[in-house]
Amino acid sequence: LEMAITADKIYLEPSLNLASLSKHISVPSQYISQTLSQHLHTSFFDFINEARIEDAKHQLLLNNKSVIDIALDVGFNARSSFYKAFKQITGLTPSEFKKQSSATAE
Fold first, then answer.
1. What are phi and psi of 39, to 5 degrees?
2. Long-range contacts at 91-94 (CB < 8 A, ≥ 24 apart)
3. Does residue 106 register a pLDDT over 70?
4. Are the beta carbons of 95 and 86 closer than 8 angstroms?
């Protein structure tokens, strides 16, 4: 799972689902789901969204792309789902995150 996320960056695929991840890493989907639930205490979608948001956080700080472009770049299909996941994971909106990070850097 870690290699699929960090090395292969499979989370960038907007249509990623449990079955396609299972096929990618050659592990039964039930085992992936069980591992995420029991060992990482998360769901498949939360696991993928966390990887996407981590990537988005870096992009927000490193370039001047629009929020929607970054959302699409990291695998989200819609601005609303990106904002919802970003706020759920960071406690901030993307613009609040960028503003707070800029203030911390100064």
1. -100, -35
2. 94/56, 94/60, 94/67, 94/70
3. no
4. no
